[in-house]
Amino acid sequence: MSCQSLDLTTKKSKRKRRTLSKISSVANILSPIKPIKNAAQSLQRSFSFKMPSPAPKQSHTPYRKPQPAKSVRRPSKLFSDSVDGSLANLLRESGQIKRQEAIHELYQGEVELVEDLSMVKKIYYDPMKLLNLITEEESKKIFGIIEELVPLHKDLVQKINQSRNELGAVENIGKIINDWSPCLKSYTQYCANQSFAKSLLDEKKENPKVRDFLQRCQESPFSRKLDLWSFLDVPRSKLVKYPLLLKNIIKKTSEHNNDIIDIQSAITRIEAIINNVDQETGRVKCDFTLSRLDFLDESTESCLDYCTTLLCEGILRNSRGTKLNTFLFDKCLVLTRPATRNNRFCYQVYRQPIPVCHLIVEDLKDGEVKMGSFRASIIQNKDGKNMFKVSSDNPGQGASHTLQASSEHDKRQWLQCLRSAIPKKTKAICNWQ
Q: What is the pTM for the complete model shown?
């Protein structure tokens, strides 16, 4: 027997390798990972003509608030940009270009005012009624007579354009404004209504639908990032600018130009209208503010029955840091705190009002009064700034209050208003006593 016949390792190893390969192939068949997946794919392909694949699920994208659009600013357009260059040079040589630029500033303001008022009617007034966000009565209170103001200012734009000469210049702006100015009397009704309009608009904003509508409009390019109230207040701000614009035209007009007489006459008329508007607005605002006062003690109403004008209003703080909505009427000074009664916003009268016939005003130096509670003033050592004191020379007519204004400028304004009311009443007798 040879040694080779006794070597069994080679055969065994070969059989072992074959056995392992067979086992591994069986394992591959039974493996739950790739083979079954491949088998499933093959089965799906073989039965695809019998079993249609299910429809894909529809994904609903949630609503996302769009990014605010870029506001469209109005380009500043000069008179020299609106006419041919050669014509502008002729006016420049004759020394009229500065006057025409001043006239064009007034004219361009009228064009922009017509655009704003027309936009308010088209974007706010009509849609808010159509969507039942406001009633017909509420629309009249919020927007007032804004529909009547549009043709009024369109008429002035038309008259200015019709008066231009062959160079595009306006020669008789004084006569045009002087003849047109009586139309501004309608502003008395519009401006007097603004106190009620602002209050009602703020109340309507509590409605989520109204608030969403106004927010979407404000984020649109046409709004120039201005809210509705900013547009509703444009006519009032435009009214008070007329005298300034006309005076600027006079500065740029030659002394020998007869148009100056008409411009000065127009200024006098418009200032008289503005004065009348201010008086009526003050009276209506006074009545509106008085109607929102809430009294814990009915006896405090006596001095307020004679008030006809609201001289000044604002937010002040007392020495404890409490915010007080303060109103200075022509007959008394009233300090209040905001409150809600029967779902209605009001001002709850704080302490007893001080009649102006007994009012004493005292300016306080910075640091003379500690702010906050007694304990806080000692621990935090807060020195009061912009402080003043109001009291009554009659102990039975109003309490003493130490008040703080928001700034030095605000303090000076309050002191001026309070002191200017005192000389008018020094010899007056309180009618309610």
A: 0.70
C-alpha to C-alpha distance for 80 and 101, rounded to whole angstroms? 8
Model confidence pLDDT, tens digit, residues 329-362:
988 999 999 988 877 888 999 888 898 988 999 9
Q: How confident is the model at residue 85 (pLDDT cuts 50, 70, 90)?
A: low
The residue length of the chain stands at: 433
CA 246 – CA 175 distance, rounded (Å)? 12
CA distance 32 to 38: 10
Could you tell me which of 181, 10, 39 has the C-alpha nearest to residue 106? 181
State both tokens at 351. 């302490």
Does residue 347 contact residue 336 with C-beta atoms inside 8 Å? yes
Phi, then psi, of 54 in degrees rounded to 5 = -65, 150
**Choice among 173-177, 210-214, 377-381 with the minimum mean pLDDT:** 377-381
